[in-house]
Amino acid sequence: MSIVQYRGFAGVRLEAEVGGTDDDPAVLLIHGAGQTRAVWAGVADALVQAGRRVISLDMRGHGGSEWPADGRYDVEALVEDLRAVLAQLGSRPMVVAATLGGWIAGAALARDAALLASGLVLIDLPLRVDAAAAAHVDERLHEAGLLAPGQAQWDARLRDAFDPGEMAARFADVAANIMLPTLYVRGAMSELVSPDDAAAFVGSLPDGELVEVEDLALVVTDDCNDALGAHLIDFLERRAPRGMPEYRAGSDARTFRDALGCFATGVTVVTAVCPDGTPVGLTANSFTSVSLDPPLLLVCVANSAGTGAVLCEAERFAVNVLQIGQQPASNRFAGRGEDRFATTPWEIGEFGTPVLHGSLSSFECAREAVHPGGDHFILVGRVLKAIFEPRRDPLLYFRGKYRKLHFA
Ligand SMILES: Cc1cc2nc3c(=O)[nH]c(=O)nc-3n(C[C@H](O)[C@H](O)[C@H](O)COP(=O)(O)O)c2cc1C
């Protein structure tokens, strides 16, 4: 994620956090009342992982954006800010906006929507402003005023700057003109928006969809991002699909290797003991389970590997599955020149094979079979004993690089 500055209405400086690559379709995230862009952190990550360019904006008077000296926080200024940012983006994003941000986005997209955006997602947006909704917005904005100067995340002057009732009325007037695929997201436990109001609103939109997020009253808060991310990605995939993937093809060795590299794997170190008692081992990601009964696994070892001859002949061997902290061990057992076992804590296991300390799991095996496999041989082991550690994350390997899990 990097920080990007935009120019808003009357030159006000607006700050956004941007992630993903320029070529990916864009998503502009607009926070709600009493929030900053920080509230989107989990959603932004999930969207970037799903191949989207994410621009997470602080509205004027919020977070890292300018808190203008003239205190202009009227609806007009906020709407024109958003239109200015949309014009500077260079591609038409999906606009995703929460509460107050939804009113602003609706007003901003009432004109020329199709030129500025590819779609709209409105989350937790009060559809009629009764006393409860007005109090909710007021209460959220009021919190800033309670903090010492310098700590506040938004300008306390915002509280007096606009009238939720007026904003909701303005929004109601323009909603029918939003000529964009529009998703309305309601927390199933919401007290601000009734299910009937939500359904009626979506029915009034030219191209509306409704989704309810289970068990939540407010959807956009710091800890609810997983469920929302899944709904957003589903909507984006259907209504703002990514371009056709560009495939590369060929019958050459490089293309074959690169295509194989698309299969994400864990990483193991396969170990055995030489007849003279010296331990040997090499890094291998060609590990596969084979059979449950009998318990069999396999690993493919290059005929050219220095360790190959020992592994081929050894009666017993072990497969150690590496955890996220064992990347140095993976490099050591794939590299040249270093004494692989000198700096790796290990011990001889119950069945006489070298077991690396701290591995995610280790399988002590008896050699079951060795099959030829081109420039590799396929070593099949019968598992004599398995141990594993249930909490740590694995070391992963994908497209020639080490990786870590993104989702727990
Ligand atoms: C992530 C990773 C996975 C690897 N997988 C295998 C494998 O499945 N089979 C293999 O023979 N070599 C594999 N290698 C390469 C060997 O670890 C490497 O060639 C090593 O230096 C062989 O050591 P040796 O010649 O001492 O036996 C892999 C290397 C890395 C980094």
TrEMBL record:
Write the protein's name.
Answer: Flavin reductase (DIM6/NTAB) family NADH-FMN oxidoreductase RutF/pimeloyl-ACP methyl ester carboxylesterase
Which residues does the UniProt record annotate as the domain Flavin reductase like?
260-404
Please list the GO terms describing molecular function. FMN binding; riboflavin reductase (NADPH) activity
What does the UniProt keyword field contain?
Answer: Oxidoreductase
Q: Which GO terms describe its biological process?
A: pyrimidine nucleobase catabolic process
Against PANTHER family, the record matches this protein to: FLAVIN REDUCTASE, FMN REDUCTASE (NADH) RUTF
Give a Pfam family name.
Answer: Flavin_Reduct
Q: Entry's InterPro entries?
A: AB_hydrolase_1, AB_hydrolase_fold, Flavin_Rdtase-like_dom, NADH-dep_flavin_reductase, Split_barrel_FMN-bd
